[in-house]
Amino acid sequence: MTTSHASASTFSDVSARKSACSAVVGLQWGDEGKGKIVDLMAAAHDAVVRYNGGANAGHSVVVSGSRYSLHLIPSGILYPGKAAVIGNGVVVDPWKVVEEVDGLAAKDVDTRGLIISDRAHVVLPYHKLEDGLREDLLNRSNPATAEGAPSTGSGNIGTTRRGIGPAYADKCQRAGAVRMRDLLRRDALRERLSLSLAVKKPLLSGLGLTDAAAADVDLNALTDKCLAVGQRLAPMIQDTTQLLHGMLAQGKSILFEGANGTLLDVDHGTYPYVTGSSCISSGIGTGTGVPTTRVSRIIGVMKAYTTRVGSGPMPTELNDDTAHRIRERGREYGTTTGRPRRVGWLDLVATKYSVMINGATGVALTMLDVLAGFDQISVCTAYEIDGKTYDYFVPDAIELSKAKPVLTSLPGWTQDLSTVTSRDRLPDNARKYVDFLEKYLGVPIQIVSVGPGREQTMIAM
Ligand code: GDP
Ligand code: IMO
Ligand code: MG
User: What is the pTM assigned to this prediction?
Assistant: First the structure.
């Protein structure tokens, strides 16, 4: 185990392999600490690339005590001179990008490395309206499954209301969908918006659109708004697939930054309580045009416990003092929406499934410090569903909502871990906890994180 005080440079020393590409993916229901791990690994790569999701993501990075919350802009932006690429698989709210660029500039962050795919789909104001109105309607029609209540396959999703689902749906619907490059072509843009509004206006009225939001569905107002934001972002919009392949041809290395998490993946997650994109490592191919075979290192990020935001089954969820303690110690409130995150013991069954689905070559374990002070710590190593024991994950929301966790109890520790700098200096029980996880998952835990800062990290790669 190599110790990392100034982890960014240590990571480069340990792991720089030019033209080797890496990926960071979430192994749980999001918010695993991907932003921190991407920030660390970015030091050893030439570009950081987002391939999925949109402004539903909230990736926090803490550098020298300053906290940055990134939603659409890749976490690598904090390194001047590196390319920070938003790939074609991302749904881009261009006004959010401007907000983020301006916010970073106000903190003296150089954002000139930002590049956006000309083929990324645009999240328009009516996507956000649709997202919110749908959620409200679903909530009204089925209050028993309102957000946070046990879910059995109906009710609202508890989305971030950032327009993600409607934007991806329109991408598949095709007619009238707007891509980033269209923001630079007045006539094509107007034509697309006109087509789209022909469908959206009656749809949104039916869902309860208010007069206050009328400008968002007015063709002239919307066209002008889109052209204005397009003009602002024009220097950043290009064919990112060509760009990335050009970099690879020059022997440069790329880090792919997954958003959301494997259990929120539209195909492999707890459908329908998922997001609209391919969050897993295979999403890199479709979301950037770089074949996944170019990625030699896939780091799955997991917390030492489990959290979830929004609706859907979560077998290890707790609603007691333990949950409260973990939530407060871990500051478990959403980076994007501020919602309190649901909290529970570590679900190893789910995490092992995610390791498998992603082909993770290693794991980054975060938030180990948060578990200090418990006499006993539980981990879920199997489920019981209708009297049958499952030692593998069941990605079906209805079945999973019936799962009772089979828990294994491990002894806790009292010591503060936030300044521990190597795995062999962890208190005995904390080390045994990490060893237990590693053995169960069957992949090396290569990074252990004990605080939000870069220096609060132990790396062995
Ligand atoms: P992401 O969406 O996966 O990037 O994760 P978020 O940024 O939404 O949430 C993770 C939170 O935990 C952020 O506030 C991080 O600053 C913080 N964090 C990351 N790693 C650690 C850690 O090891 N310990 C503690 N206490 N906080 C951490
Ligand atoms: P990061 O990248 C945690 C959840 C939402 C909701 C569901 C669908 O920060 O880990 P959406 O708005 O995507 O249609 O919502 O997915 N969700 C996340 N939860 N972290 C995220 O991103 C998430 N992105 C989406 O809470 O349950
Ligand atoms: Mg987050």
Answer: 0.95
